[in-house]
Amino acid sequence: LEECPTERMILWHGAPGAGKTHALRALAREWHGWCDVAFITDPEWFFGGSPTYLFDVARHAAGWTAVEAARRSKLIVLEDAGEMMSAGAREEAGQNLSRLLNLTDGLLGQGLKVMVLITTNEPLSSLHPAVIRPGRCLAEIEFGSFTAEDANDWLERHGSDAIVDAPATLADLYAILRGHDPGRVASANGHHVAA
């Protein structure tokens, strides 16, 4: 993929600690050759405030010349923004959801080479039907826990002797690598681990 696709929304969802932020860093590195990444820390203000803010981010040259910037795509990242897309989002946040959908699917986004990647810990069932309708997303990816077997393979590849006997998130595995007691990490997340 080296050109901004027709579908402009990417939705990543899953439990906290499942690896969404880790994957964001990897995606930004992988797409660096053709796509600039903008991380939005205030999504409510980005969509609900002045439209100038939205356009400034969408058209920001990121240090490229005007000609280079016009060729490149932009990925706007909204981390943990599930509440913006909830079933009641239109009533609770006014135009935020409408502006998001307009930026990804509507006339506003058609002239821009902009994709929006949204991460959320919310289950898909809690999101507004307009967000998850067929054809809306370029990718809808669920991040889950590693199986015990995959978690143990991962730990071994990373030099750990710990053994897990239940599913574990990426955050759990990194905690074990940093020296946290595997049993305490697991019990905090409802899993059983043997060291």
Distance between the termini: 42 Å
Indicate the radius of gyration in whole angstroms.
19 Å
Write down the overall mean pLDDT. Answer: 81
Q: What would you call the quaternary organization? A: single chain
Structure summary, number of beta strands: 7
Content-based structural category:
alpha/beta
Give the fraction of residues assigned to helices: 40-55%
- Compressed to H and E, one letter per element, the order equals EHEHHHEHHHEHEHEHHE
Numbering strands along the chain, what is their spatial order in the largest sheet? 2-3-4-1-5
Strand proportion: 15-25%
Labels describing this entry:
11 helices; two-stranded antiparallel ribbon; alpha/beta; 195 residues
Give the structure's gist in a few sentences.
The protein is 41% helix and 18% strand. The chain is of the alpha/beta class. Strands 2-3-4-1-5 form a five-stranded parallel β-sheet, sandwiched between helices. A two-stranded antiparallel sheet has the order 6-7.
Describe this structure in words.
The protein is of the alpha/beta class and 195 residues long. It is built from eleven helices and seven strands. The protein has helices spanning 20-31, 43-48, 51-59, 66-71, 89-93, 96-104, 107-110, 129-132, 148-157, 170-177, 182-188, and strands at 9-14, 35-40, 73-78, 114-120, 137-143, 163-164, 193-194. The strands form two sheets. It has a five-stranded parallel beta sheet, sandwiched between helices. Strands 6-7 form a two-stranded antiparallel ribbon. The longest helix has 12 residues, at 20-31. It is globular. The termini are far apart.
